[in-house]
Each structure stands twice: as structure tokens, then as C-alpha cells.
Recover the amino acids of this structure.
């Protein structure tokens, strides 16, 4: 039966995606599980922390600091006060109280825009430091705000004093000197009266400002430290689960481009004989003759001739040479004279000379079929046996079959080398008989 054409290099099938998803499920699940376990381990290594929360009520700004025309204006926002709470003077006081340097890393601040309450939560692995941290921050904040209000009050009193001095100077200018007309006297008298009224108002305002308290607010609650706990304990396991799943997807994608099983080889090169062999087995060395029957029958059918034994796209290694030795032994078990020759010992662009009086098969191990020397050897031999492993790329196998077809060679079969087999019970690499 004539073999069907191999799959195209650029062919894309829906079943290929479904197959990749199905085979990748185990990899994704295992990697996700490993990632979650590592995340749990990381979470268990993180130290437990203590927390303490303090709440402070922010008082309105006194009226003497209100904007002109807005007697009830607070002239502050809760966000502004939150910034003051984490200002450098407050942080420095907290460092001295707790002995910890990176205060912001231990701090959680809650400032609701529609309220006048600030909540400070201080986290630390030291129970005493947690309690002192929250209490010190609120106390230092209120002291800083009181000092700021008092400074602004003093500035206001000084400004009023300057205004009074200016009014006194203007008042001196209204003194009547010498003889003056009645109209001039009336004008100066009216100006003097108005200035005196302004001075009296400024003096009253100055007394009011000086006697007004610079009340910054008050501490509503200083909470005790909570029981030790881990912050965000589920973050590390979830991150590990997600990252592990992504690694699993990457592994599944890489595996989907490789040859995993004999069914993958048969799907990519339909109609060709596929043989699965272990690279090593446990037990005494030997050749499983019947395993080679699908390829042996095809090689025996060509009569005397040369068969190239090679990987698709790389230099032959010990695995390829071992496979050639096994095929040679299988052919001899069927009564065919057979020998194995390395391409490296042959002259360029030649194949071994055959004995015309004796039916024999020469197996030549050469470079990958897709390389230029390998293509030449395949064309000279006319028959090819490809050696692949589960790590061989699917595209490499398809390209090798196409190249063999282009140079007029026939692919007699594909050998898939797996890792191990266990027929007897003790480890021993495959002992192979190499013919010369």
C-alpha cells in the first residue's frame, strides 16, 4: 500500500490544539500545585506581626484663619492632614520611639474624605513597637498641628499689628494744623473718626485672635496590640498557584511541539512503519528482534542495497549508532548479510560498494537528513530510516520526510527511542554488536 503524504509543515489542525490541551492538563495541574506548595512554604516563613490602631479627631481651623468671606471655612482637607500625619517630623519621632527605621513599611493610614477622623494602624513583629508606633504618631501629629496653628496665629497677630501701625500713621496725617476752612475741618474730622473706628476693630480682632485656643484635635482611641497574625496570608499561595500554572502552560506549549508518543510519529508520517525502542533497559543486553519487524520487512523487501540511518536534523550520536546496530542484528537474524558503516569513514559523495554476488544490506549512519551532506547521502542511498526521540521537534521530523521525498529517497520507517524498559530487573545499557 502506498503511504499517504506526510503532514504539511504549516498544517494546523483543531485536533492538534485539543491534543495539546489534553496532554498539558497534567503539566499545568502539577506545576500549579508545586507553585501553591512553594507559596504556602513562603507564607509560613514570613514572620507574624502585631498591629495597633489609633484614631484621632481633626478639629476645624479657628475662625481667625478662615478665608475672607468664608467665616465657617475649615481651610483644610482630610487628605492634607493625612499628609501631615506622615510628614518627616512625625516619622522621626516614631523612629525614636520604636527603634525601627522604615516607618512607612509598617504603616497603614485610613483617611475617609467625608469625615474628620484619621486612623493609623502600625504593624510590627515587636509587640511593644507596634503599640508605641501608633500612639506616638498620633501624639506627634497633634503636637505638630498645634505648633502650626499657633505659628499661624502669631503671624495673624503680627499682621494686625502692622495694619494698626499703618492706621495710626494715617491718623496722624488727619491732625488739623493752623487755620483751615470749615469744609476741610469737617473732612479731616470724618476721616479721623473712620480711622479710629478701624483701629478699634483691629484691636478687638487682635485681642480675639490672641485669646483663641489653637486646638488641633484629640485622640479618640489608642488600641491595644492585636494577636500576632500574618498579613495577607493567601497572597503568596495564590501567586504561587498562578505562576505555577503559567509555567505549566509554557511546558505544555513546549511539549506540544515535540514528539511525545508513537501515535504522534504515526500521525505526522502516515503510512510509514513506526518502531518504539528503549534507549536503555534493565536486564541482560540483547536485541528484541521482533520489535524491528515492521522496518525489517521493508528493508528486506528492497533486496541488496544501502540504507541511511540518521536523525532528522542533527549529528548522529550513540543512540543512532546503537539503533543501526540493532537493525543490523535483526536483519542478520532473518538471514540477510548486514553491516554498519559510519558516514565519516566514507569518501565524499559516495556509498559503500556492494558485493554483486551476495545479497547484503549496508546501514550508513549519517548527518541529519535536512542538512546538505545528509540530503546527498539520502539521495545516494535511496532508502532512509529516521531515528527520533520524544524531544525531537515535530517540525524537524516533517521537514526530514519532505527532504527525503524531494531527493528521491524512501523512508522505510521511523524509530522512536524512549528512555527505559524493565524486562528483567538490573540496569545495563543496551549492549550492541557493531559490525565493521
Amino acid at each position: 500500500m502506498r503511504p499517504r503524504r506526510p503532514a504539511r509543515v504549516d498544517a494546523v489542525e483543531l485536533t492538534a490544539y485539543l491534543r495539546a490541551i489534553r496532554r498539558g492538563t497534567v503539566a499545568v495541574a502539577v506545576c500549579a500545585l508545586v507553585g501553591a506548595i512553594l507559596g504556602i512554604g513562603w507564607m509560613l516563613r514570613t514572620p507574624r506581626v502585631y498591629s495597633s490602631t489609633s484614631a484621632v479627631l481633626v478639629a476645624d481651623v479657628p475662625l481667625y484663619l478662615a478665608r475672607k468671606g468664608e467665616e465657617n471655612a475649615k481651610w483644610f482637607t482630610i487628605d492634607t492632614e493625612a499628609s501631615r500625619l506622615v510628614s518627616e517630623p512625625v516619622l522621626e519621632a516614631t523612629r525614636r520611639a520604636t527603634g525601627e527605621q522604615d516607618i512607612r513599611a509598617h504603616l497603614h493610614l485610613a483617611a475617609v474624605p467625608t469625615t474628620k477622623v484619621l486612623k493609623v494602624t502600625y504593624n510590627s513583629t515587636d509587640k511593644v513597637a507596634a503599640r508605641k508606633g501608633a500612639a506616638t504618631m498620633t501624639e506627634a501629629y497633634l503636637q505638630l498641628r498645634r505648633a502650626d496653628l499657633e505659628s499661624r496665629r502669631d503671624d495673624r497677630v503680627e499682621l494686625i499689628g502692622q495694619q494698626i501701625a499703618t492706621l495710626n500713621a494715617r491718623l496722624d496725617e488727619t491732625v488739623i494744623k493752623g487755620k483751615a476752612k470749615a469744609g476741610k475741618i469737617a473732612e479731616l474730622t470724618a476721616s479721623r473718626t473712620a480711622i479710629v473706628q478701624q483701629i478699634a476693630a483691629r484691636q478687638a480682632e487682635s485681642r480675639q485672635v490672641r485669646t483663641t485656643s489653637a486646638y488641633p484635635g484629640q485622640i479618640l482611641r489608642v488600641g491595644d496590640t492585636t494577636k500576632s497574625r500574618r498579613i495577607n496570608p493567601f497572597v503568596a499561595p495564590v501567586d504561587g498557584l498562578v505562576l505555577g500554572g503559567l509555567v505549566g502552560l509554557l511546558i505544555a506549549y513546549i511539549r506540544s511541539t515535540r514528539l511525545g508518543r508513537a501515535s504522534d510519529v504515526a500521525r505526522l508520517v502516515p503510512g510509514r512503519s513506526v518502531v518504539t525502542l528503549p534507549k536503555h533497559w534493565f536486564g541482560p543486553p540483547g536485541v528484541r528482534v521482533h520489535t524491528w519487524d515492521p522496518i525489517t520487512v521493508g528493508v528486506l523487501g528492497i533486496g541488496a542495497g544501502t540504507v541511511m540511518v540518521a536523525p532528522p536534523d542533527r549529528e548522529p550520536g550513540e543512540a543512532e549508532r546503537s539503533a543501526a546496530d540493532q537493525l543490523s542484528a535483526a536483519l542478520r537474524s532473518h538471514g540477510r548479510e548486514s553491516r554498519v558503516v559510519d558516514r565519516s569513514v566514507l569518501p565524499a559523495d559516495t556509498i559503500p560498494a556492494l558485493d554483486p554476488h551476495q545479497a547484503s544490506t549496508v546501514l550508513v549512519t549519517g548527518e541529519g537528513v535536512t542538512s546538505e551532506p545528509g540530503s546527498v547521502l539520502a539521495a545516494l542511498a535511496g532508502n532512509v530510516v529516521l531515528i527520533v526521540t520524544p524531544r525531537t521537534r515535530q517540525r524537524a521530523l516533517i521537514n526530514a520526510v519532505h527532504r527525503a521525498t524531494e531527493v528521491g529517497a524512501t523512508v522505510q520507517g521511523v524509530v522512536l527511542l524512549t528512555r527505559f524498559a524493565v524486562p528483567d530487573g538490573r540496569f545495563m545499557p543496551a549492549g550492541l554488536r557493531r559490525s565493521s
DSSP finds twelve helices and eleven strands in the chain. The chain has a mean pLDDT of 79. The first helix runs from residue 14 to 45. The longest strand covers residues 410-421.
